[in-house]
Design a protein that fits this description.
It is built from one helix and three strands. By secondary structure, the protein is α+β, with helices and mostly antiparallel strands. A hairpin with a 6-residue loop joins strand 2 and strand 3.
Length: 73
């Protein structure tokens, strides 16, 4: 195992999840849309909890693929 590899355990939580396919500089816009969906569906964001990004492709900044996980209740 590489010496700089870190293991962590994320506690069980509920997430609103959105998948982004596109330019890296559009990720913040995608977060805004996810946050609007959370509000529109009467969920509350848990800002003090873990939020995650799961990357599938990141080599081309014009074509990244990732999932955004925002903790909700």
């Amino acid at each position: 195992m590489p010496s700089d590899l870190v293991t962590l355990t994320v506690p069980p939580q509920r997430y609103a999840v959105s998948r982004h396919n596109g330019a890296n500089d559009q990720i913040m816009k995608w977060y805004e849309e996810l946050h609007a969906w959370i509000d529109d569906n009467n969920y509350s964001r848990r800002k003090e909890k873990w939020h995650l990004e799961k990357f599938y492709s990141w080599h081309d900044p014009e074509n990244v693929e990732l999932e955004l996980f925002d903790t909700i209740e």
